[in-house]
Amino acid sequence: MITHDRPTAADSRPADAFNWVLRLATRMTARSLNMPEPLLHHTGALVFAHVAAAERRAVKTLCPFTLLRQALARRRKS
């Protein structure tokens, strides 16, 4: 006899509750900014991409190896 483990209603409630809260927060944010929800999603993705690019540039300039190489180059010029 084969038995299939099916999730019960109690198992899926936390995930459903989280999704409901997430949708509610998205809808409320979109309404407070007077934007349609899809535009809010795309704007968020664009902002995320810009922040990620800025963080990558900052990490490159603060890399210890890069800083050491720049310091040695300045020292050689002097």
Tell me what you see in this structure.
It is a single chain. The longest helix has 26 residues, at 37-62. With 78 residues, the chain is mainly alpha-helical. It has 3 helices and no strands. The protein has one domain.
- Largest sheet composition: none
Strand content: under 5%
**Rg:** 24 Å
Mean pLDDT: 83
Structural class: mainly alpha
Work out the helicity level: over 70%
Ends apart, CA distance between termini: 83 Å
Strand runs, count: 0
**SSE pattern, N- to C-terminal:** HHH
Give the SSE map.
Blueprint: H1 9-32, H2 37-62, H3 64-77
What would a concise description of this structure say?
By secondary structure, the protein is mostly helical.
